Amino acid sequence: MTAAAHSNLQSKPHAGLISRLRAGRVYRREELSMWSRSVDRDLQQLVGGGFLQKLAQGLYYAPKQSTFGALPPDDDEVVGAFLRGSDFLIFSPNAYNSLGVGTTQLYNTTWVYNHKRHGRFQLGNRSYEFRSKPKFPRTVTPEFLLVDMLNNLDMLAEDKDLLLERVRSRFADMDRKRVKKAVADYGSVATRKLTRDWLRD
């Protein structure tokens, strides 16, 4: 953005809106409308001038700059603005590979466990699979991952029998109390039934 272009934009009615923007933040249209008398016109000019990037209908990102150019928005910023809250968990099934049970497949998907939305949504250059869940932890733990992997066993491109054998062994190595709680809190009916004998005292 040249100094002349910036000065020209600053002279327009949305100059006050520009001063409200914070690099790296994601905004909803209704939030920006509080600072504008003609929000749709101003948004069009701000996107055209590079002050904002449109991520989806009604969702905008104020780009944060680095020496290599504009940085993409953080997942937490995007999803938080989309869901209008912070009660969600973002992770990838690739995290299962950290459990040491022999999983090797890589999955080109990002899951968002939440209480509001379900389905696949394109937000900017990222695609997210929103999954409505009754309960999920604030952060990913090994116990949660192990239980969640069993919940999603049918979708994994792995040898199921071999994987179950390794998972059962992994259960035995983990803290019994934490694993039991994870199964009780996050396990599906099928997972609870499958692990019942594994967790007997």
Structure write-up:
- The protein is of the alpha+beta class.
- The protein folds into two domains: 3-71, Orthogonal Bundle (Arc Repressor Mutant, subunit A); 76-195, no CATH class.
- Helices cover 40% and strands 18% of the residues.
- The protein has helices spanning 3-10, 15-20, 29-33, 39-48, 75-83, 142-151, 160-173, 176-186, 189-195; strands at residues 26-28, 53-56, 59-61, 64-66, 69-71, 88-91, 111-114, 119-123, 126-132.
- A four-stranded mixed beta sheet has the order 6-7-9-8, covered by helices on one side.
- Helix 6 (142-151) packs across helix 8.
- The longest helix is centred in the C-terminal third of the chain and has 14 residues, at 160-173.
- It starts with a helix and ends in a 6-residue tail after the last helix.
- The model has no long low-confidence stretch (mean pLDDT 91).
Task: Give the secondary structure arrangement, pairings included.
Layout (H helix, E strand, L loop, with lengths): L2 H8 L4 H6 L5 E3 H5 L5 H10 L4 E4 L2 E3 L2 E3 L2 E3 L3 H9 L4 E4 L19 E4 L4 E5 L2 E7 L9 H10 L8 H14 L2 H11 L2 H7 L6
Parallel strand pairs: 7-9
Antiparallel strand pairs: 1-3, 2-3, 4-5, 6-7, 8-9
